[in-house]
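Predict the holo structure. Ligand: NAP.
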Amino acid sequence: MAVELLSGKTFLLITGASQGIGRQIAVTVSRLLEKGSKLLLLARSENGLKDTADQVSKEVFVDFKSVDLSVATADQLSEIIRKSIDPSQFDRVMAVHNVGSVGELSKFTADMTDFDEWRKYYDLNVFSPAVLNSVVMNLFGDNEGVKKVVVNVTSICSIRPMKSMGYYCSGKAAREMYFKVFAEENPNVHVLSYSPGPVETNMLKTVAESAGDEELRTSFIDMRNQNKQLTTEQTVNRFVEILRGQKYKSGAHVDYYDDI
Ligand SMILES: NC(=O)c1ccc[n+]([C@@H]2O[C@H](COP(=O)([O-])OP(=O)(O)OC[C@H]3O[C@@H](n4cnc5c(N)ncnc54)[C@H](OP(=O)(O)O)[C@@H]3O)[C@@H](O)[C@H]2O)c1
């Protein structure tokens, strides 16, 4: 069954597309897009991006650009997109803000005293998706005929505190609230904050290996030992199913396990 939110000639921008969930979103969603649609994949690792590009549907065009999103300015981001596409050529734009890092996991909140560490974390995980989102909306803003879909890849950590994950949990909460405000202000844009569940990626391995809180670390190790985590295919298939159903209010947090 077709996915209405992916219909028409689409420009699909995905951040953090060099591995993990971002790569899988590129691969799975590319197969659902209309012929002639275009993907633009962003992350730092050029090799990783190239591997992803090699795996997407041959029916769509794909560009990738190595960029450190924690330092890229709005002008640089705009330039990257304008070099890749002409916004007037598309019926739809979909921006998937998937980039993320877990940050320093060895510290508990009372030890998080370094402003630079805070800024570095928020630059990548909160400010960069917000700025990139504005850039994309402004590039397509003049054309009312272009349908707009924004996906924020969030986490259960945006609503559930986890010990020794102060940067990650607070960053996910702030990022999600930004997209909620954006959805309120832009009723013509379809916004989804998708929480993918625990997924076998480098990020999950890092938490299992390095979380400062022993109980949390053990629970992640146990989950991986019992193979209870999800594959990237499982979570992205569920993401597509959620998009297809559209049974949520724009801006909502929808989790892999939600019964909708
Ligand atoms: N895995 C889970 O269990 C889980 C659970 C809940 C939510 N999530 C969320 O899902 C999203 C994807 O996570 P993942 O598990 O797939 O993690 P991952 O495998 O570590 O992928 C993270 C992606 O972000 C990119 N990235 C990191 N720093 C960057 C920077 N400075 N500039 C540009 N790109 C950067 C990485 O590429 P480069 O290193 O090449 O730059 C990579 O493509 C994140 O937002 C994460 O919070 C994951």
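The pocket of NAP is lined by residues 16-22, 43-45, 48, 68-70, 98-101, 124, 153, 155, 196, 198-199, 201-204 (CB under 6 Å). The chain has a mean pLDDT of 97.
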